[in-house]
Amino acid sequence: MVSNTPEKNLRIAVISMFLLAIGLGAFILYVVGSNQKWFDSKYSLYIFLPNVEGLLPGAFVTLSGLKVGVVGEITFTEHNNQSDIRVELKIAREYADKITPSSVARIKTMGILGDKYVDISLGNPREEPLAEGSYLAVAPQVNLDKLLVNSESIVEHLQETTEHLAAITGSIRNGSGVLGKFITDPRTATQLTATLNSLSRTMRNIERGKGLLGQVVSDTALAATVSQTARNLEAISRQINSGKGTLGKLLREDVAHQRLVAVLQQTDSLLIRLRGNGTAGKILKDKQLYVNLVQTLRQLNLLLEDLQKHPEKYVKFELF
Q1: DSSP reduced 3-state for 297
Q2: Tens of pLDDT along 266-284?
Q3: DSSP states of 26-55
């Protein structure tokens, strides 16, 4: 029994060392896995999120890209009368003066695997640092599910657009439509070329001052005349609108307008009478009567002329 005691003690010592090594290894793995510096002084800030989007305790916390801490506890809580998720940010105290009320936290993705972490923007150096236990503002989060739904809709529209383009190109290859005929029918290209050549000649003639349009473009005197005419028309229009002149009064004054209407009505009544069966109407309608009347007037005119020249033929004076 005495000889077995050293062996038993040795066995206990070996087992104890093995367990201690396992515990130390587990502690080291935990420290490495939690990304924490256990011997650094830290303080806690908090953020509220409606959705952590896969953010886990132990994830990195960076300050403008520089690692300054880790994510602590993630718990459900109420904020502004609604349920949110409170995320603790354990940050090294040496960076406390860099985080102020103007700092904003954002959830970002790191690496191909999409690990989430929190990045904090640098605050205004003229502001007081946030005290421990304060809450950081959070930038609006991008809803990946909504983004995927929108991207699916965009892909569908893009597919429809591609199909439409394929149909259009097929119609063009078949010679359908104006563009198809232009590409497949050489006569259309020839006509278009002729039209362009004609247009080019017309533009050259205009530049040289040929034709009415060319004269208008190149002749400064004609252009000045046209401009003066336009100004005169504008002045006349302004006078008419202001009620000046006969036409302006007709447009602006009710009395002048009523008088004109009365004259027109009387003229219309006179024309109706002339078209009737009266003497004037017969003169207008009966050609023979008109001819006879003209001849009578001529003969009367001749008689009056002869009377003026030879009064003795028609008037005789005798004194007793």
Answers
A1: helix
A2: 776 766 665 555 565 565 5
A3: HHHHHHHHTT--TTS-EEEEEEEES--TT-
Instruction: Give CA–CA dist 58/210, Å, rounded.
Output: 86
Greater model confidence, 302 or 315: 302
Q: How many CB atoms lie within 10 A of CB 42?
A: 19
Give pTM, 2 decimals.
0.41
Structure tokens at 209: 């001052």
Give the burial string for 155-185 (b: 16+ CB within 10 Å, else e): eeeeeeeeeeeeeeeeebeeeeeeebebeee
Express each pLDDT in 210-229 by its tens digit: 666 666 666 666 667 777 77
Domain ranges for the chain, please list them. 1-33, 40-143, 167-208
The answer to whether 297 and 305 are in contact (CB under 8 A) is: no
Three-state DSSP state, 183: helix
Pairing between strand 115-120 and 60-63? parallel
Residues 67 and 110: beta-carbon distance below 8 Å: no
**How far out from the chain centre does Cα 198 lie?**
37
Q: Who wins on pLDDT, 236 or 276?
A: 236
* The pLDDT of residue 118 is above 90: yes
